[in-house]
Specification:
By secondary structure, the protein is mostly beta strands. It is built from 3 helices and 12 strands. It folds into 2 domains: 8-62 and 97-141, YaeB-like (Elongation Factor Tu (Ef-tu), domain 3, Beta Barrel); 160-232, RelE-like (YaeB-like fold, 2-Layer Sandwich). Strands 1-2-7-6-3-8 form a 6-stranded antiparallel barrel. Strands 9-12-11-10 form a 4-stranded mixed β-sheet. A two-stranded antiparallel sheet has the order 4-5. A hairpin with a 2-residue loop joins strand 10 and strand 11 (214-221). It starts with 7 loop residues before the first strand and ends with a strand.
Length: 233
């Protein structure tokens, strides 16, 4: 039996699972900070890390129902219509709910004794416990001859994204990062469940998505994602 203690916690723009990209790197504008916890919050522990552009994060899928692992799952990449073994997928419903993400390291910040790693291209829910950080080593971690099974290449950005005047104005006044670009990158990936993507449906499908401290109201019709309004929670 093993017992693991988180070394830190993620603070990200994603406040709920809906809308989180299905892999890291698909939404470069998605940012987060990893705040290290004592006794791991030491400058000595991150010495030399600034020389690496990317990191591996080993984390815990939190907020999932306990006892929900399944031997087979339906990958969204396959439209939710085909079952594969859980070990052939990156589903969070695993015997041990562990995840692995490659993220960009933008900055190491020290503030009043706190050590924070500023990250980009994340696919992590706010509050995610992180068990370990490892540097991404290109010569070993990038394998040009590797094959990707049912996901050989990155998914196509499927939707065109448009903003209402209210949503555009909200984004223009947001003081942190480029909010419009973040929302655009997320919605281009079409975060809807597979059953909602049937072609030929001309009726507006409406959704809500929580980012930071606001709710993004958007809909899809004729392959266009339209951001209708953004409301503070």
């Amino acid at each position: 039996m093993f017992a693991f203690e988180p070394i830190g916690v993620i603070r990200s723009c994603f406040r709920e699972k809906f809308g989180i990209p299905r892999q890291s790197g698909l939404v470069p504008a998605a940012r987060a900070t990893l705040e290290l916890r004592p006794p791991y919050a030491q400058l000595a522990a991150v010495r030399g890390l600034e020389d690496f552009s990317h990191l591996w994060l080993l984390f815990v899928f939190h907020g999932l129902p306990e006892g929900r692992w399944q031997p087979t799952v339906r990958p969204p990449r396959l439209g939710g219509n085909r079952r594969l073994g859980v070990f052939a997928t990156r589903s969070p419903f695993r015997p041990n709910p562990l995840g692995l993400s490659a993220v960009r390291l933008e900055q190491i910040a020290v503030d009043s004794g706190r050590i924070m790693l500023h990250l980009a291209g994340v696919d992590l829910l706010d509050g995610t416990p992180v068990l370990d950080v490892k540097p991404y080593v290109p010569y070993a971690d990038c394998l040009p001859t590797a094959t990707g099974g049912f996901a050989p290449v990155a998914p196509n950005a499927e939707l065109v994204v448009e903003f209402s005047p209210q949503a555009a104005a909200f984004c223009a006044n947001w003081p942190h990062d480029d909010l419009r670009e973040l929302i655009t990158q997320i919605l281009r990936q079409d975060p809807r469940p597979a059953y909602a993507r049937e072609p030929g449906d001309a009726a507006l499908q409406s959704y809500g998505m929580k980012l930071y401290d606001f709710d993004v109201k958007w809909g899809v019709v004729d392959r266009v994602a339209y951001v209708m309004e953004i409301l503070l929670l």
